[in-house]
Design a protein that fits this description.
α1 (13-40) runs antiparallel to α3. With 244 residues, the protein is mainly alpha-helical. It is built from seven helices and no strands. The protein has a domain at 80-223.
């Protein structure tokens, strides 16, 4: 069966590697923040005005601020590359045999749903789930298989579960301050460490999500006889001159 292709298939390998590398770096920084929370919990006070008088406490404060800046930069960079990854992966679906009128979410809405309040709690996960499901479409002419959607691996749901909890945890951490409502104090170290643990869990699961989608589409492209970056007819055969 022939499906018209609006855009040729594009390999996701490089994009997946970039996202994976950035997420691995984010995991490393989050681990450093967890280890930093151990000496922070031993400080006699978390009041920022009093920490300035303690050389050890001041060093921990500067290290915490530095890690927060690095994490913020990494979050921004990961978000950009991840969204370009899912957009390109979604644009590959027609080339892999899934017509756009069979998709519940468009490429633009998949990306835009991450920025819409309340909608961002549900729709992005459902859109990524559909992306994975449609990355290996089943032919329409198989009886009983029309519109069949397999369930993705469990780490898809875990990724979204950890991500939502980490966002809630970050809001709680910076709202309660030191636990006594002081906004000019360091957050509770143990609570901050738990949030970093959730971020690590989300990043690990997202690495598996990204690589699963990339691998699934690569397998589909091979099955359809497509070559990465090449959609035209095969080159003409080469004949060597007859030997005399």
């Amino acid at each position: 069966m022939y499906y018209p292709m609006a855009r040729p298939f594009a390999s996701l390998r490089l994009r997946a590697r970039i996202v994976t590398g950035l997420l691995a770096t984010l995991i490393f920084v989050a681990l450093l923040a967890i280890f930093l929370a151990i000496p922070e919990s031993l400080l006699p006070t978390t009041d920022l005005d009093q920490i300035g008088d303690d050389t050890f406490g001041l060093g921990l404060l500067l290290a915490s601020v530095f890690l927060l800046l690095i994490q913020g930069l990494l979050y921004l960079t990961v978000s950009v590359f991840f969204l370009t990854f899912v957009y390109r992966a979604h644009e590959n679906l027609p080339a892999l045999g899934t017509r756009k009128n069979r998709l519940q979410y468009s490429s633009g809405w998949m990306v835009g749903s991450f920025f819409v309040p309340f909608v961002s709690l549900v729709i992005p996960y459902r859109a990524v789930k559909e992306l994975w499901q449609r990355s290996q479409p089943l032919p329409d002419n198989i009886p009983g298989m029309y519109d069949y959607k397999p369930d993705p691996p469990a780490y898809f749901a875990l990724w979204w579960f950890f991500w939502i909890l980490a966002n809630i945890g970050n809001n709680v951490v910076f709202r309660i301050g030191d636990g006594n409502g002081k906004s000019d104090s360091l957050p509770l170290p143990w609570l901050h460490a738990c949030v970093h643990g959730l971020e690590i869990g989300a990043a690990v699961c997202l690495i598996m999500v990204v690589n699963s989608i990339a691998r699934r589409q690569a397998e589909s492209a091979i099955q359809m006889g497509q070559q990465q970056g090449f959609t035209g007819p095969p080159p003409p055969p080469q004949f060597s001159p007859a030997q005399s």
